[in-house]
Amino acid sequence: MYADDGICQETLLWSVVAVCAAKMKLLRRKKRRALWCKQWLSRRHLKGSFNQIFMELQVENPRPRKLLTKIEPYICKQDTSFRDSISPGARLMVEIGEPSALERSVTGCPVALTGHASLSCNLKIEPTQQHAVHTASQNGCTNTDYCTVDCSGCKDVWTRLPDPSNCKQYYLCNRDQLFTRQPFKCAFGHVFDAENKTCVLGHFCMAPCDRIERCHFLCYPDSHHYLIADRVDCTTYHVCNGISTQPVGTRKCSVSKPYFNGAFCQEDLTKCCNCQPYCSARDLGSAVLNPLDCRKFYECWVVGLPFFVSSCTPGNHFNASTGTCNAETTCQITCPNKASARVILVDGNCGDKVTVDPCAVPSDGSKECADCTGFDQVPNPVDCNSYYLCSAAAFFMPDPFPCPDGDIFDEDELVCKPDGKCTPACNQPDGRDCFYSCEGNPAGMIADPFDCSVYHECTVTDPGPAETCPSDKPYFDGKKCGVDESACCHCRPYCYNGDAGLKVEDPTDCRKYFVCTADNEVPSVQSECKDNEHFDQHARECSSTAPCVTLCRNVVDKDGCIDPYTCQEAGYFPVCKSKCLQDYYHCREVSDDYAQTETCSDDLVFNPDTLQCTKNETCPYHKSLPH
């Protein structure tokens, strides 16, 4: 029995040794294979690292690592014993982000010769893309414009460039050559980060090129483009109503942000819509000139704004007539950049200071430039941060020029300077003295959005404690307390930081909204929803399912009138508090709905004081009967 026990123990011992030896051999084998799998992965069914990686992608991971994958026939690694048996189309290049020093000290994971962690470390993998490419650091790439697809100067084997028109796609550069004209898509639920050149988790994004799909020149029914550009004048834009093919209004950009880029007014001249290249139907398959650089041209593959830019060889310029580059062509820049457009402002020698009429809206400059014989700068009566340029006795340009950031146009020296002396001739119209954010008025005061008697003083970008106007001057107009209720700053539409190009609600009427052309200002471009629709303040669009939310009820406008009117008690109420009109509001019950107007009979008018229809002659206010 003891002999049998000894034999059993010896057999068991040899079995353990055999198992351990096999395990050690397997571990050594796995270690060698791990390094190979770092470089190339075979596409095997239910086996191999390819399957292992995509199994890991399906597991929720709180600390992901980067994985960039793409089946790619391009060969750039040195040969291995496994490589010949795998077809190029089944090879998979991967990159796993290098672990931090802390992670290496904790896990003891080795780092492969390539500088990246080995697969044997069991690092989790971030589900960022379905495709994989080699490191795309974009070293050496000379193109920094997200509005073009240009591989010039790229030295890496693979470089990712954002798709200008789609924030969930990207293009591949093979060194300095575009690999394919078809973009690659990020995985579902991911967007392309143009700065880091990788897909990241996310759903909402904007196209990397802020000019794409912005420059429209025609109104289309049921279109979301409510603002269209002017083909000639970059400081002018037109308003569409989403119904008609014709604009319903024309607007000018403000003096501080004078250039319209297709969505809102801003300061960069080069983003004007008339500075954008454009491919018409007849240009397809050919090329058009880059309006900012005569040494470059755009290839036209679609109608609209082109994306693919190419450069002429050194010493050549692009000929827009022939569509080719040659040395004989004279450089033609159809849209000068901001610096060259302002170089003429350096010299000016008008002798006398020019004065302008208070609050006058300059037209041709005949009054403002009357005493000038050459180029001279004169004050803007409504804005201390800009000025007009005179050429002889007329404006050189119809629009004012902005001073550099932080400068004020000095009314005595007639130059922009940080400590310039300026006393504006009048306040800006249309509520432009009203601010709700200190970021738009850091040295002034801001109004309370809903209470006309409350205001705050700004300390840089932070509002101070609430202050209340005195009872004898209860209404704050943006600068001071007064007695004019129609000058109140409360309940105005307002464009905060980041609202430029977006829609904001009309706080007094749920059926209307405003389009922001700049940040930190009271917008002036108003539009109205279709019948039976209300403006959705969260989606920032009109909707037939959105409830009517009126933030401010029965607000007196600058004309002293109330429209719309909400019945907060039963009775008769005037449309205007200081006018005798034939129309009035009749509230039969308290309601959140907007009241309809009724009309006095015959030639009678509604007296706001007595709340009755009376003869026009007895009305104490301005007679407003139609002629």
How would you describe what is shown here?
Pfam families: CBM_14. It comes from Scylla paramamosain. This is Chitin-binding type-2 domain-containing protein. With 627 residues, the chain is mainly β. Among the domains are: 54 residues, no CATH class; 72 residues, no CATH class; 99 residues, no CATH class; 53 residues, no CATH class. The protein contains 4 helices and 42 strands. It is extended, with a radius of gyration of 35 Å. About 22% of the residues have low confidence.
Describe the structure using short key phrases.
627 residues; mainly beta; four-stranded antiparallel sheet; chitin binding; Chitin-binding type-2 domain-containing protein; Chitin-bd_dom; Chitin-bd_dom_sf
Query: Unreliable stretches, pLDDT < 50, 5 or more residues?
Result: 30-50, 56-138, 336-362, 426-430
Euclidean distance between termini CA atoms: 130 Å
Mean pLDDT: 68
Helical segment tally? Answer: 4
General form? extended
**Helical percent range?**
under 10%
List the helices and strands and how they pair.
Layout: H1 2-39, H2 48-57, E1 70-71, E2 92-93, H3 101-107, E3 159-162, E4 169-174, E5 177-178, E6 184-185, E7 190-193, E8 198-201, E9 227-229, E10 236-239, E11 249-252, E12 259-260, E13 265-266, E14 287-289, E15 296-299, E16 308-311, E17 317-319, E18 324-326, H4 338-342, E19 375-380, E20 383-391, E21 394-395, E22 401-402, E23 408-409, E24 416-417, E25 445-447, E26 454-459, E27 462-463, E28 467-468, E29 475-476, E30 481-482, E31 503-505, E32 512-515, E33 525-528, E34 534-536, E35 541-543, E36 571-574, E37 579-580, E38 583-587, E39 597-599, E40 605-607, E41 612-614, E42 622-623
Parallel strand pairs: 37-42
Antiparallel strand pairs: 1-2, 3-4, 4-5, 4-6, 7-8, 9-10, 10-11, 12-13, 14-15, 15-16, 17-18, 19-20, 20-21, 20-22, 23-24, 25-26, 26-27, 26-28, 29-30, 31-32, 32-33, 34-35, 36-38, 38-39, 40-41
